[in-house]
Specification:
Layout (H helix, E strand, L loop, with lengths): L1 E5 L12 H8 L4 E5 L16 H11 L7 E6 L1 H12 L5 E7 L8 H4 L5 H9 L3 H12 L6 H13 L4 H13 L12 E5 L8 H10 L2 E5 L6 H4 L1 H12 L2
Parallel strand pairs: 1-2, 1-3, 3-4, 4-5, 5-6
Length: 244
């Protein structure tokens, strides 16, 4: 089985760190493909669409070479792209769907981006020094003690493949306006969320669980970036769910 991995707002495949390698070690018979959205990563010079549908179509063109059916594991805004994809995919294209700390128009705006984070985001955007902006972003999205090397890694990513202000705005516009259709795209999907998420309320995942009777698992204290805070927990929950 092939898996497509999608990151969130202004993030790229480099921000997964060693998470794809952990997945590969846990599932040696499967293949994992981190994919960058337009405006990020290897596509940082491209202009990002300002709708989730436009981003989804651009990503789908990138993976035409991957055998079908494939599965998708996606974090945050990547989860919106994955959900939109699943709702519009031809029958049999997507086998499994795993959404991590994502949100949608089914939830109120104060849960999709928690009000307590707004002042911190404004302060981060006002910082001119890129190193400290990346450090502050990590501090917002992670609830763990962060090694200096991780901050340096994120700083290097943004230095080498910078996300432009216009692309960040276009992605944010796409995310805030996204509302899924009413159709349940798959009989089951795995929703992973964090009670300690200070950016997106875990009830955004609960709203999808209640609407479509999907499987929800909630970590008690991890932050928004579950792949950094609790990668092994994700792997264990994915293993248990795939056995179903």
């Amino acid at each position: 089985m092939d898996w497509i991995l999608l990151r969130g707002l202004t993030r790229e495949q480099g921000h997964w760190g060693d998470f794809p390698q952990r997945l590969q070690a846990a599932f040696p018979d499967q293949r994992f493909h981190p994919v960058d959205m337009p405006g990020t990563g290897v596509h940082f010079r491209e202009s990002s669409p300002d709708t989730i549908t436009g981003i989804r179509e651009a990503v789908r063109r990138q993976v035409q070479h991957i055998p079908k059916p494939f599965s998708i594991l996606a974090l945050s805004m990547g989860g919106m792209v994955a959900l939109d994809w699943a709702q519009h995919a031809p029958e049999g294209e997507i086998q499994n769907l795993v959404l991590i700390n994502t949100s949608s128009g089914f939830s109120p705006f104060w849960q999709r981006m928690r009000p307590g984070t707004w002042p911190r985001l404004l302060r981060m955007l006002s910082r001119r020094e890129l190193f400290y902006r990346e450090r502050d972003l990590l501090r917002l999205t992670s609830n763990r003690q962060l090694p200096l090397e991780l901050v340096k890694q994120w700083y290097r990513i943004q230095r080498q493949r910078p996300v432009s202000a216009s692309n960040a705005w276009r992605q944010l516009k796409a995310a805030t306006r996204y509302r899924p259709g009413q159709k349940r795209p798959l009989s089951d999907a795995l929703l992973l969320a964090s009670r300690g998420d200070r950016l997106v309320h875990w009830k955004c995942s609960s709203a999808l669980e209640q609407r479509w009777q999907w499987t929800l698992r909630v970590h008690h204290d991890a932050g928004h970036d579950l792949a950094i805070d609790e990668p092994d927990w994700i792997v264990r929950e994915l293993e248990a769910w795939l056995i179903r």
